[in-house]
Amino acid sequence: MKELEKILEDPKVSEDVKRTVQSMNKDGMQLLNDYYDENSNFYQRAQPELIANKFYADPSKIKNLYHYTTYEAFEKILSSSTFLIGSIHYMNDDKEIKYVYELMKKELKLLEAPNDIILKLEELNTILPDDVYVWSFSENDYSQALSNYGDIALGFDSQGIMEQLASYYSKGKKTLDEYTVGNAYVFPVKVEYDYEVQSKYIKALAHAWLVAHDNFKYDPDDMEVIIGSIVQALHFFSLVFKNPYLRQEEEIRYIIFNINEDNLLKPELYMNSKPFTTCRLTHEMLKEVIINPKSQKNLNDVSTMLNREGFTRTSVNMSKLPY
Fold it and tell me: Which domain of life is it from (predicted)?
């Protein structure tokens, strides 16, 4: 427990604080040590910056992205030159969000955690980061699974999306350090479908969740901070981890995290009572349109509409899917 020892040896730390920390059991003190130890398993599995870097979908490496949609929605996107990006609270399937909490619950049961500690986790099922929006893409340009979302696939250059979103949400700020209320963090993540990878992270969080609650009565201040860091990590994983059965989607997500003072939902607009933020669609961004075999539209229909709206450099192709 070298990190904790260093902290307690600091002359600025009062005797009362030392007694509080040392009143915890061995697991509690180890957890507090691991919270500060950058090499610990807990630190590596719970720190937001490390998680974001681990699952970062680098636009310089994952260059081509495809967004599947209906022809009707495609027409509206072109005519308005605007993409509507939905709130995390109104995703297609709320089971996606709950998936991570089910994994966590399973691990806690394996650890024989008391029911009251598991119930505290279940309360989080309905608590999500308030002002977060998700724009979904796939690396797969001919996805049978995603073709169910619509008969059109829109092809983009990921770097172009990143630049457009970053420019819009930075609102003139040059660095992230300058970001304040009204700005938004934008980053692409690669969805993780591998259960073994997911399990390594969730096991570490579940163990920490149990230990932190066990020691809360001895050192509530430190344990509350650690519990908060676990909740933050779970929120992030709810955006990144998906059921392995959905791996064919090969999903890449652009996450837009608005910065505001009260963490309340503050979308740019509502449509059909659902909150959205937006992205301006430029002629340069849209590289390709792929038509699904099930579509009633043909190459000429799509090309004509693209030309009418000024997207003269966008290529149009039929999907290679047989049906």
Answer: Bacteria
